[in-house]
Design goal:
The structure holds three protein chains of three kinds. By secondary structure, chain A is an all-alpha fold. Chain A has 15 helices and two strands. By secondary structure, chain B is of the alpha/beta class. The chains are: A mainly alpha, B alpha/beta, C mainly alpha. The A-C interface holds A 56, 58, 60, 101, 104-105, 107-112, 114-116, 118-120, 122-123, 126-127, 130, 185, 233, 237, 240, 244, 274-275, 277-278, 280-282, 284-285, 288-289, 292 and C 29, 35, 37, 83, 86, 94, 97-99, 101-103, 105-107, 109-110, 113-114, 116-117, 224-225, 227-228, 231-232, 235, 239, 264, 266-267, 269-270, 272-273, 276-277, 280-281, 284.
């Protein structure tokens, strides 16, 4: 059990750094902004992980849930509601949207779900672009009182919460059912797993996390030059990239992937400009082809191989992993 | 009751000590087989014994992890299935696997896909229609609407269109009535008769298999446990063990 | 009443374009069970090539169709070799489809950003001397450009049908579609059939792009919108049903066009989303599924 204890103490150490360092020293708004962005990415990525990684349903329009939450959060907050109510409402609206698209599409093959989510995202972008043609922003009072600190800590809490949610779900009955249906839907159905119900549940959890990310974004960003950008497919791509590179179906894969994404974006955006997006695209394709389990998944495999080469491992090592890649 | 094979005969197919795996599960252990030109050879064994696996290995669908397969002296075990067809081996798959939405004629035409067969497909088609008049009569009909026996005829016809020198038939009588099975067996004898077409067939019905063939192999649990002249095999111990699980020849 | 006729006829013209857009996507999906998200990008690139040829050398877009088809054919071959062929190692169709979703999503990302880099995010369209001409039919006025698009769509559909039914290659494609293993055992080189089909599918996308750049415009971000149209048409036609693509496209076009009589034209996309959802709920096998059609 020393492995998990090692991991737990590593997590605690990282958390301690994240909590205390900004309290004692001034990291500057650029670093703080970067961290908040990282947190948003982590939450969104864990959201995609639930539906795409653990359930095996490829969602190519998760930005719809993200964007709807951002809009709802923005307008409710602007209307005077407290930010927490606004974010919660945003999250709720994302879940409602998920149910609306999930019910017709999740009963069918994976392709239809992918199409449905793309359609939802594109339609949302079109509607929003037509309704909000001018700049959308908060009144001046909001920007006068703007401080990064509460946003940073809220982001940290939500990011940890998202990892926690995924952890709990993966170990629960829901998680086991999802793993079963991801590996072989037909077999799962035959053994009595209510496949459709679990898929919808997974989608709702995924949308809730995406909604949290969107709500946080609505808290962080006060003005939108072109508000339809909140529904841009690049959010989806960034989430998918993070999860796939980090390791779909693993707990920390999305975290690792998001860090990777944010760090590389910072490094390359200045040198390569627009082209860095193309580089990311290639990295993504290479990972899908050659390292489909991602970084964390690959690490898991290595660890299991080391274990199975020990003579006393025996039967244990041959048992299929729960909640991990098949 | 094992009979040694005469090594000086003209062996068209040689399977040499192959091991075949399905993912990580071993399905065939050290399997060897020879087939001489013009023979009809039967492969018998109970369900799951490895008959289809062996057929698939010969056709190139599965690649053996050890050993080799030679056709006319040249190695074919590394070739893709369509290349194996080019070399002159064609299989009638288990369950027929026709193209249900295509017509009888189109199914036959696809059978003649390899370059050499395509050139002579007119004559081959005439020959197939001679062997199976029913197919000619209904040549525009969709393959999915045929009866079991007619489907088997079409499947064999399709395989014959590639002008094979070795024809493999996997589960010849599966899903057929006894009458239809006998009729197919008659066709098998008929196409083999001019001694130009060597046939390896897998057949559940041991009686049918070993009366049709000259020689047979018995496979059990992925290993060859018996071989010899068909008539002798029919009343041998190996057959009883393989099908009824009696005796000491366990894995 | 004349507004209705106008909407109907425009719907037919637009619908023909929709079916052209869907053909390439449907081919890959039907034959190989791969979802090619990058199809939209192929369409846009086809349009950009036509635009380039027109701007640099004054070649009329419809005359540049052969060149566009050749370029896109090569791109389709590359897509298959580099991105799709490696997915064949997964034996299960569901997993192949999921992986193809992911990988072609990545390909779209690369292509769209590359296009933005080369041609800037601006919208481009080709304006020829006849771009504005219209013809009067049944009391409605239809653009000449749009009608040419209709003719092209019909021609291509007929050509594809002939290819699939009369040629040996077409028989290989149909055989591989129905049972790729059995096709292989019959001597069909299934991988090469897939390769060429991918090339054809991309070429078809390119032709659609040419029609689009002359009738409307292309922009790097437009790919996903056209992909969506392709997907909705395929859902209407029923998966794997290539011959139903033309009527399905026409139906979608007419539905969308008629909807403009009641809602603003800007909301066409949400209309296709609604159509998509309705078809999924009511007729998941497509509008044209008969009793004899196998459900795969």
């Amino acid at each position: 059990m020393t492995d998990s204890r090692k991991r737990a103490s590593l997590c605690a150490a990282v958390l301690a750094v994240l909590v205390f360092v900004p309290l004692v020293s001034d990291l500057g708004s650029r670093v703080m902004n970067l961290m908040v962005t990282l947190f948003i990415y982590i939450i969104l990525a864990e959201g995609w992980n639930v539906i795409g990684g653990y359930t095996g349903q490829v969602n190519l329009g998760i930005v719809a849930f993200f964007g709807v939450s951002t809009m709802v959060t923005h307008f409710l907050w602007k209307a005077g509601l407290p930010i927490f109510v606004a974010i919660s409402s945003g999250t709720l609206s994302a879940v409602v949207l998920a149910v609306l698209i999930g019910l017709p599409t999740l009963r069918l093959r994976g392709m239809y779900f992918a199409v449905g989510t793309i359609a939802l995202a594109q339609a949302s972008q079109t509607i929003v672009a037509n309704v909000f043609t001018r700049q959308v922003s908060m009144p001046g009072s909001f920007s006068a009182n703007y401080s990064l600190s509460p946003r940073y800590y809220l982001g940290l809490i939500l990011a940890c919460a998202s990892v926690g949610v995924v952890h709990v779900v993966a170990r629960s009955k829901v998680g086991l059912a999802l793993a079963a249906l991801r590996d072989d839907e037909g077999a799962a159905r035959v053994t009595g797993v209510r496949v459709f119900r679990y898929k919808v549940t997974a989608l709702m959890i995924s949308a809730a996390l995406a909604g949290l990310a969107g709500g946080l974004y609505g808290y962080v960003r006060l003005s939108f030059w072109q508000v339809a950008s909140v529904f841009s497919p690049s959010w989806t791509f960034d989430a998918v990239l993070s999860v796939v590179v980090g390791g779909a179906g693993t707990l920390f894969g999305p975290v690792v992937g998001s860090v990777f994404l944010v760090v590389l974006s910072e490094l390359f955006a200045n040198t390569l400009g627009q082209a860095h997006l193309i580089v990311f695209g290639f990295v993504f394709i290479l990972v899908v082809l050659f390292l489909p389990q991602g970084l964390m998944g690959g690490a898991d495999l290595l660890r299991r191989r080391k274990m199975s080469s020990r003579p006393e491992a025996g039967i244990e090592a041959q048992a299929p992993p729960i909640g991990g890649r098949p | 009751m094992l009979t040694p094979i005469n090594c000086r005969r003209n062996n068209v197919l040689e399977v040499n000590h192959i091991d075949v795996f399905h993912d990580d599960l071993q399905a065939l252990w050290d399997v060897s087989m020879t087939i001489a030109a013009g023979e009809i050879v039967s492969l018998v064994g109970s369900n799951g014994a490895g008959k289809s696996t062996l057929m698939q290995a010969i056709c190139g669908v599965s690649k053996p992890r050890a050993g080799s397969i030679l056709f006319d002296g040249a190695r074919i075990d590394r070739l893709a299935p369509h290349r194996v067809v080019e070399k002159g081996i064609c299989m009638v798959p288990e369950g027929r696997r026709l193209f249900p939405r295509m017509s009888i004629l189109e199914n036959l035409e696809v059978g003649a896909s390899v370059k050499t067969a395509r050139k002579t497909r007119r004559e081959t088609l005439d020959w197939v229609y001679e062997v199976f008049p029913v197919l000619k009569a209904r040549s525009g009909q969709r393959a999915g609407t045929l009866s079991g026996g007619e489907q088997q005829m079409l499947a064999i016809g399709r395989a014959l269109m590639s002008r094979p020198r070795l024809l493999l038939i996997d589960e010849m009588s599966l899903g057929l009535s006894p009458v239809a099975a006998q009729s197919i067996a008659g066709v098998v004898r008929e196409v083999n008769a001019p001694r130009m077409l060597t046939i390896l067939l897998v057949e559940q019905d041991v009686q049918l298999a070993l009366t049709l063939a000259q020689r047979g192999y018995v496979i059990e649990n992925g290993r060859i446990v018996g071989m010899g002249p068909a008539a002798a095999l029919l009343c041998s111990e190996e057959i009883k063990e393989a099908y009824l699980g009696m005796g000491s020849a366990q894995r | 009443m004349s507004a209705v006729i106008q909407a109907l006829l425009i719907g037919i013209v637009v619908g023909a374009l929709y079916s052209l857009v869907a053909l390439g996507f449907g081919l890959i999906m039907g034959v190989m069970r791969f979802v090619n998200i990058a199809h939209g990008s192929f369409i846009i690139i086809g349009g950009y090539i036509a635009y380039w040829l027109f701007t640099l050398w004054g070649i009329d877009p419809y005359l540049s169709i052969p060149a566009v088809m050749v370029c896109m054919f090569v791109m389709g071959l590359l897509l298959y070799r580099l991105a799709l062929a490696p997915l064949l190692k997964y034996p299960r169709a569901e997993m192949r489809m999921d992986k193809s979703l992911l990988i072609t999503f990545g390909v779209t990302w690369v292509l769209d950003n590359a296009v933005t880099l080369v041609w800037t995010p601006d919208t481009r369209s080709v304006i020829t001397p006849y771009s504005g001409s219209t013809i009067g039919i049944f009391g409605a006025r239809l653009g000449l450009v749009g009608l040419t698009g209709l003719v092209i769509a019909v021609l291509i559909t007929v050509f594809l049908h002939l290819l699939l039914t009369r040629t040996y290659f077409g028989k290989h494609v149909r055989a591989a579609t129905e049972d790729s293993g059995a096709a292989s055992l019959s001597g069909v080189n299934v991988q090469r059939t897939y390769l060429i089909s991918c090339g054809i599918a991309a070429a078809l996308g390119g032709v659609a792009g040419v029609v689009i750049v002359s009738s409307y415009s292309v922009a790097p971000s437009g790919g996903l919108n056209w992909l969506l149209i392709a997907m909705v048409v395929i859902v209407l036609a029923g998966e794997g049903n290539i011959t139903a693509i033309l009527p399905a496209g026409l139906i979608l076009g007419v539905l969308q066009s008629m909807s403009t009589l009641v809602v603003s034209p800007a909301y066409q996309q949400p209309i296709s989303l609604i159509v998509f959802i309705l078809v999924l709920l009511l007729r998941p096998n497509g509008l044209f599924a008969h009793g004899g059609m196998d459900d795969r």
